[in-house]
Write a structure and sequence with these properties.
11 strands; alpha/beta; 270 residues; homodimer; 4-stranded mixed sheet
């Protein structure tokens, strides 16, 4: 049982709150039972250490058993130690330190299935939005998420929490300049669809056939001109009432599900 | 200029953080420029007082000018006073105390247009989710939102912020028992569609013709059995990848937009 909230180990785990430390060590934290459960289930080889309070070990016995089964290091800690390690106000007694398996854009593009659906975060800065978009991409059956170097770090604790495990469910490429992302996708025949409130094409009228990627901009000011101009079409979600806009995660989910449904119809009829 | 953060006025405004005080006084706060702008624009007759710091008065001159034009009480306050009045960490210098115009369910149902789209929050507890659902309902062109007495108070500061003004864009009925809501809707010929992960009908296969209401449950455990059973159909959003679920606001937005698109097609062809 780890009991000292001021130990070097606690400080090292706590330091993963900083992007620079995550980048240098290649490690990050997954906080709370849902994120930890999905990490243990989908990527046990990337879980370095699991920390659990005695109370949580009882309540989430399935997660701890799965972790022991996978021969992971499971450490019992006091609630004080866990709180000192984490950002979350209520990590609910469970946290895992994970390794990030870096995936190169070219490897990811080479491994795309036929008729792929891709989601690109071009300039998403809000952690909750980024995590929710990744969760939405997962739910819509996207084959790849690519996150530009101008976007928020997806290994930050709040993004990881907001993905609710989706971080481990599909390939995610990070830290690539947006120009490289767009060129790479275009080179393998993926059409680029900008999701933008300034788009001329309404989502229900958009051509969602064939391989394509949704390119999502900043939550406050959308896509940069040169990114929008580099895309094959600029598409907006129709606003029927008086709302000024939808938030980024909602708009992205509608776009991704539009593609998912178009693909479902193609597969049924094909 | 109001300068004393310990004055009785400041305490009275601050007390609107409590549901009981909002309920007794019929007043609530709208915090931040977006919420205040929409209140002044769509419901100036319900804005009782507007509080603004000198800096925000410069930055958001349009809002202050519109408020003066509408003959509203505009009070200059110090940042300390505004912070003492508000819940938001960063109210960005602007806040309005508003009156809630209570709308009865029977009046709201009587005023429904032909072919209405309705959104029912049966047991939504999270303020951010509730606000985002109301924003989504607005964007999808819903004609009415009905919030059960078991749901979160939509006049709480966090819900108001999350609606980004949609609170003033469409009729909202609050504090009604869910049984009364469902009976009332059924009596005026509105079909009840439960949105629930346990549904047998997939959203793309659902019949979204004619007057209908989406009934949304709790973010953690969905709809209560008796509510689900009282609905005409139980519909789920398909999950294509490995995600366990979508969050409530995303699922609700997909459902509401499904209805909006079905209605758009009806109106085009009709």
């Amino acid at each position: 049982m780890l009991t000292n909230p001021r130990s070097d180990r606690v400080k090292a785990v706590r330091a993963l709150s900083r992007r620079s430390v995550r980048s240098r060590t290649g490690q990050f934290r997954a906080e709370g039972p849902q994120a930890v459960r999905e990490a243990v289930r989908f990527a046990p080889e990337h879980v370095r250490d699991l920390y659990v309070t005695p109370e949580a070990a009882d309540r989430h016995g399935d997660v701890v058993a799965a972790a022991r089964e996978a021969k992971l290091w499971v450490h019992e800690v006091t609630p004080d130690v866990l709180a000192a390690m984490c950002d979350a106000e209520h990590p609910q007694g469970l946290m895992a330190v994970c390794r990030w398996a870096r995936l190169s854009l070219s490897d990811a593009l080479g491994a795309l299935p036929p008729d792929p659906l891709v989601c690109v975060l071009a300039h998403v800065r809000d952690p909750g939005n980024a995590g929710t978009v990744i969760r939405g991409a997962d739910a819509a059956g996207a084959d790849l998420v690519v996150v530009s170097d101008a976007s928020v770090d997806v290994l930050g604790p709040k993004v990881v929490r907001s993905t609710v495990g989706s971080l481990w469910h599909l390939p995610i490429v990070t830290e690539v300049p947006i120009e490289t992302i767009l060129e790479g996708l275009r080179a393998v025949g993926v059409r680029l669809l900008a999701a933008d409130g300034a788009g001329q094409t309404l989502l229900p009228d958009a051509d969602l056939g064939g391989p394509h990627a949704w390119v999502l901009g900043n939550e406050a000011w959308g896509l940069e001109d040169q990114v929008r101009d580099a895309c094959d079409d600029v598409i907006r979600v129709p606003i029927h009432g008086h709302a000024e806009s939808l938030n980024l995660a909602m708009a992205a989910t509608l776009c991704l599900y539009g593609s998912a449904e178009a693909r479902r119809r193609r597969r049924r009829s094909g």
